[in-house]
Amino acid sequence: MKQKFVLVVLMFVCVFSYAQNVNVISKDDINSCKINNVALSEIKSTNGKQSKVESLLGAATSFENNGFYYYFKFNGLKLDFSTSKSKPFIESFVILSNESNLTIKGITVTIGDSIDKLGTVSFSTGRNGNKSILFAECEECDVFINIDFDQTTKVITKINYFDMS
């Protein structure tokens, strides 16, 4: 009996400490995230059509269609649509400069902002030991937003979205 209790407590501690790595938000919260004040759901609905994407985000500085992906570059933003499924979907976006921003749960952040703007969040530790901030629907979900920051100054250095489903 004592061994079962210890095992249950140990499992609870492991699950609880793992749960602290991801800031769980709903699918609606992810879809309502905004890139430069445009909801992710709106961008998704374009299915990667260049004219529709550009009508939402402005003229791309470059566009490439290699048959498998649609690659868009804007000032401070890269956006990739995969065409590997029946209809194109956003596989990733990366915000690389303060010329673009992300609004998540009503809070707008960009490169150069302090992570303090996000309020109380949990940190995830990467393979290199650096911490980042992950937002996803669940602990093991394949769709997530990752915010990298300088470990000393706590200033945001990169904002990524991935859909690896």
Structural features, described:
- With 165 residues, the protein is of the alpha+beta class.
- It contains 4 helices and 13 strands.
- It has helices at 2-19, 27-31, 40-44, 50-57; strands spanning 22-24, 34-35, 38-39, 62-65, 69-74, 77-82, 89-95, 102-104, 107-109, 124-125, 131-136, 143-149, 156-163.
- A hairpin with a 5-residue loop joins strand 10 (124-125) and strand 11 (131-136).
- Residues 1-20 have low confidence and may be disordered.
Describe the structure in brief.
By secondary structure, this protein is α+β, with helices and mostly antiparallel strands.
Number of strands: 13
Note the beta-strand portion. 35-45%
Major sheet, described briefly?
9 strands, mixed
Structural class: alpha+beta
How much helix, percentage-wise, in residues? Answer: 10-25%
Distance, first to last CA: 42 Å
**Uncertain spans:** 1-20
Shape: globular
Helix run count:
4
Q: What is the average of the pLDDT values?
A: 89
Write down the secondary-structure element order. Answer: HEHEEHHEEEEEEEEEE
Rounded radius of gyration (Å): 18 Å
